[in-house]
Each structure stands twice: as structure tokens, then as C-alpha cells.
Amino acid sequence: MTSLQSFTPRRLKLVLIALPLALALVYFLLVAADRYVSESTVALQQSSNDASALPGAALLLAGITPPSREETLYLKQYIHSLGLLQKLDAKFQLRRHYEAQKLDVLARLWGQASQETFHDYYRSRVDVTLDELSSTLTVRVQGFDAKFAHQLNEAILAESERFVNEMSHRLAREKLGFAEGELARAGEKLQQAKAELLAFQSKNRLLDPTVQAQASGAMVAELQAAITKNEAELRALRSFLNEDAYQVKALRSQIEATRAQLETERARATGSGRGSDRLGVLAIEFEGLKTKAEFALDAYKLALGAVENARIDATRKLKSLVVIEPATLPETAEYPRRLYNLATLLVVCLLLYGIVRLVIATIREHQD
Known about the structure:
The chain is an alpha+beta fold. The chain contains 12 helices and 4 strands. It has helices at about 1-5, 10-30, 55-60, 70-80, 80-90, 95-100, 115-125, 145-205, 210-240, 245-270, 280-315, 340-365, and strands spanning about 35-45, 125-130, 135-145, 320-325. It has a 4-stranded antiparallel sheet with strand order 2-3-1-4. Residues about 50-65 and about 275 have low confidence and may be disordered.
């Protein structure tokens, strides 16, 4: 009971309100270092592509794709990466700058901090925000000096642009390598198809069996017409000449020879003859080889177009880092927010004071 009586409202106000506010006031007025914020806004932009001039397959081989949200997230991760931190530290001596404020132990980087601690501190001082609607990145860099924060923000933008260019060119080079590999394979298939076609022509001694088959068909029609004509003449001769007459025998022999030639041509056209005489079969095989060669040629043309497009993409700037708002040079310190922090602390202390008073009153009531 005696211990509870010592917690008078006056003492509670001193301990829970006055003392924290006094300490905070001393810290913010005498110890806390000013932190300046340089802000910039950037976005990724895809260079225009004349994709409509490429066939669909060539477009797939070339790998033309619009910039995506993932690429913006890659840039955000790069800005917060340890690799970029090491580059910036080597150029601007970030450790020395953030360790300079010896008195402000809450805002400074502690000396001899580990790499992981330094990285976490860097991420807390370089804030990168993604706007989901416009896919823009806002970079806010804090520094104990306005000029330093401005220079650091500009360096981050320069390294970000280099990263975007390197990423796009690396992807373009990979696509070029893939397209060149497809071109080499298409060239091999084209040469193989041509070799098969030439071997077929050499083996069968025919330039185009299809043309030969058409000529054979025309000859069959002519032979049939000749037989019909000769048979009509034979009937006419037999009407006034004997069967042993020279003209009748000669015409009959001519008809038999024409029929034999007709059977030979039919055999060649329908495939009932010997191997090299089967024009129908050879024509079908030749058409298959010819179609294969034409398809291989079309594939080669598509692959060649894809290689040319990928080669252009590998040499030009595919993606650009558009600086919407350049790095600002701050004139006044944004942090620490002294009035805001003091007001917040006052509210917290008042709430804590009210809770403690309520607890003490409850305990006293139960003791009574």
C-alpha cells in the first residue's frame, strides 16, 4: 500500500511525461543531425520496334517483347543491391559520410559495422517506391549534407541507366545467339533437302518426273487418238479390199505397234513397269522432296530475318531510363521531423500516463 501511495499523480507526470519529453527535446535540439532528402522519379521505356514488318515466326525468334512490370521491379532490386552499394561506397565513401555524425547515435552508422549492417542501413537511407498505376520509381536519398544527397541520387540514376542498358543488351545478345543457332540448323536442313533432291534426280536421270508424267499422259492420249483413227481407216479399207491386201496388212501392223506403245506408256504412268519407268511413283516422291526443300527454304528465310532483327536489337538501345523528375537539391532538412516526433511522443506519454493511473486506481480499489 505504501509503494502505491508513492506513485502520486505529480511523480507520474514527471516520470511518464515530463522526463521523456525533456530527453526528447534535448536530443532533437542539441544532438539530432539534420538529414536532407533528394528525390527523383524515373520510368522504363521500350524503344519502338517495327514489328509489323516481320512475319510471326520471325517475331517469335527475335523475341520482341514490351517492357514489363517485372523489369521495373528488377531495377528496384538493383538500386537496393549490395553490388550497387559497394560501387557507390568506393566512389562517395558512404561509410565515412554516414559515420560522421558521432553524437547522433540513433541516425548514424556505427563504426566498424559489418557488411550486412551497412547494407541494411543503406536500404533505410535510400527509399525506392513503385507506383503500381504508372510503373514509375521514386528514389528518395537521405544524407547529412544536401549536396551529398543530391550527388548520391544522381549517381544512383546513372548506375540504374547503365544497368538497364546492360540488361537489355545482354538479353538481345542471348536472342541473337539463339537466332543464329536456328539459322545454322535451318541452313543444314536446307542443304540436306537440296542434296536429297539432287540425288533423286541423278539416280532416276529425270529433271522433273511430274513434267515427264504429264508428257506421258499427253502421249497416251495421242496414241489412243491414233489407234481410233487407224481402226476407222482399216474398216474403210476392208470394205473394198481383201484381208491379204498390202494396205490392210500394213495398217493392221501399224495399229498393233501403236497399241504396244500405248501399253508401255500406260505402264510407265501407272507404275506397273520396271523401277525407273514408274513415272507416277517417281512424281509423287519427287513432289515430297520438292515440298520438303521449299519448306526448308522458307524456314531459312524466316531464321535469316530473325537474325537480322536480333542483330539490330543487339546494337541499338532497346530500353531507356526516362528521368521524369531529376534528382532535386534540397534546401531544408526533412528529417528529423522534430515537431511531429515531439507531438507523437507527447500523445504516447499521455496514453501511457492514463493507463498507469487506471491500473493504480484499479489496484487500490481491490486493496480497499
